[in-house]
Design a protein that fits this description.
By secondary structure, the protein is mainly beta. The chain has 2 domains: 363 residues, YVTN repeat-like/Quinoprotein amine dehydrogenase (Methylamine Dehydrogenase, Chain H, 7 Propeller); 76 residues, Immunoglobulin-like, CATH 2.60.40.10. 4% of the residues lie in helices and 40% in strands. It has 1 helix and 37 strands. The strands form 9 sheets. The chain has a 5-stranded mixed sheet, with no helix packed on it. It has a 4-stranded antiparallel sheet with strand order 1-28-27-26, with no helix packed on it. The longest helix is centred in the N-terminal third of the chain and has 18 residues. The radius of gyration is 22 Å and the shape is globular.
């Protein structure tokens, strides 16, 4: 009996050692004759306020092969998969609710998830949709629904949740000049074109979507146009004021979202081979060339994230490193740190950056390879990676209002709020609800003290810069 116990203990330890620091398959998309759960997940996974991850698969779904156009799914950190929705053709063969959801999802302040499809909809030009966490689905906007396709078409990038609670995004084509548009949309579908791009002055084909920087403005990139084959770093205010910040002096498109690191600099990747950095004023520098031996190469829709270790993490298909690609880490100054190689059994050719969950692990998707539940090669994979990093610490950018009586609902805006365990006014704990990664609502407790609002999660505790004054 003692030998059996020791053997079980040894196998348990061996299992934990063998998976630490290695990419682990959470789910492989099965495709025998059809792909009932979808296939080819290309977008970044998103961790929602319930702690689960949500994403899209660009193809396949629960239905006949030629009448399905992708899926939306949920997966738990432990790998329990749930199919939420399949994009299915109508009786006339048209995908009125959209098809080909390439981008990832974003969680709004109302608890719904928002995303886009590249095709389908009224003019087969894509849609913006919302979906509940149990699968309740609706189309908010169908592109090319305005005369002359003035609202744009074919949105490839993930939507961005603004500080004002609205969603911001880009359409890669359409608009008056057929060069694309920049838009905003509310949770109830009020759609506004912020900028119709002019290929000669603005650039065109904004594939990567937008991100909101610390100055409150949105940043992204247009491809081709102003300086022929190269991309352009652009900025747009929430009111729609637009400007080209700087041309990017590199060949290749920017197909992923930009990212602002803790040092205030913007980072992005150029399709196929390099990573650049820029100040918000437009001082652009070529940071690092993906070597293939270390970082991999051929970054596509990827984008970059900054993890809790302060390093920048991304994925590349890594054709010269190996056939299945890598997850790599570099310092903000461009020094190579480490990589983790994919094998076909866990996934391959990742086209989107991993996301760091509230537990500190990385989670992501690859559009090819993986292993399904029957042990067969899958058509896409969802994975995790425990790289030994601590959970991300929360941050607080603003609280509103800054005073009020007990029972007042205070909106806390920051980052990494998912996984919050304690919110306190001074030293007095308060009831709260996490809305998404950026927003939460806390209720002023009866015995609230004048002072800072603090937020605690597994990564640590942080205090607001503003003080809160309780009123009687």
């Amino acid at each position: 009996m003692k030998d059996v116990v020791l053997r079980v203990l040894f196998l348990s330890i061996l299992s934990s050692i063998s998976t630490y620091g290695q990419i682990k398959s959470l789910f492989g998309f099965p495709c025998a004759s059809v792909c009932p759960d979808g296939s080819s997940p290309m977008g970044t996974l998103m961790q929602a306020s319930d702690g689960n991850f949500y994403g899209t698969a660009a193809e396949g779904g629960n239905g006949l092969l030629n009448r399905v156009g992708g899926t939306i799914f949920r997966i738990t950190p432990s790998g329990n998969f749930t199919l939420l929705f399949t994009f299915v053709a109508d009786h006339d063969g048209e995908f009125s609710k959209g098809s080909q959801p390439i981008a990832g999802l974003v969680e709004g302040n109302d608890g719904f998830l928002y995303g886009t499809t590249v095709t389908g909809g009224k003019d087969n030009s894509g849609v913006i949709f919302k979906i509940g966490k149990t699968g309740a689905f609706s189309v908010l906007h169908s592109f090319c629904s305005l005369p002359g396709c003035a609202d744009g078409s074919s949105p490839f990038g993930t939507l961005a949740l603004g500080d004002d609670g609205l969603l911001y995004g880009t359409a890669s084509s359409g608009g008056a000049g057929r060069a694309g548009t920049i838009f905003t949309i509310s949770s109830n579908g009020v759609f506004t074109v912020l900028r119709t791009l002019n290929a000669f002055t603005d650039g065109s084909q904004p594939f990567g979507g937008l991100m909101q920087a610390s100055d409150g403005n949105f940043y992204g990139a247009t491809n081709t146009g102003v300086n022929n084959l190269a991309a352009n770093l652009v900025r747009v205010t929430p009111a729609g004021d637009f400007g080209v910040i700087a041309p990017l002096p590199f060949l290749g498109n920017v197909q992923g979202q930009l990212m602002q690191a803790s040092n205030g600099l913007l980072y992005g990747d150029i399709q196929y081979d390099s990573i650049f950095t820029s100040t918000i004023g437009g001082d652009v520098q070529d940071l690092v060339l993906l070597s293939g031996r270390q970082d991999g190469n051929s970054a596509l829709l990827s984008g970059i994230i900054q993890a809790s270790d302060g390093n920048l993490w991304g994925t590349s298909s890594g054709q010269s490193f190996g056939p299945y690609g890598v997850i790599y880490a570099i310092t903000p100054s461009g020094k190579f740190v480490k990589n983790y190689a994919f094998s076909c059994s866990v996934g391959g050719s990742a086209m989107s950056a991993p996301v760091q969950g509230s537990d500190g692990k990385f989670y992501g998707a690859t559009p090819s390879c993986g292993t399904d539940a029957m042990g067969h090669r899958a058509f896409g994979s969802l994975y995790s990676l425990d790289a030994g990093l601590r959970p991300p610490k929360p941050s607080i950018a603003a609280v509103s209002p800054s005073k009020g009586p007990p029972g007042t609902q205070v909106v806390v805006r920051g980052d990494h709020l998912i996984g919050t365990s304690v919110v306190a006014f001074g030293d007095v704990p308060a009831q709260f609800q996490v809305l998404n990664r950026k927003f939460m609502v806390a209720v002023v407790p009866d015995a609230a003290q004048k002072g800072f609002i603090s937020v605690t999660n597994f990564g640590g505790a942080v205090k607001s810069k503003q003080t809160f004054t309780p009123e009687q």
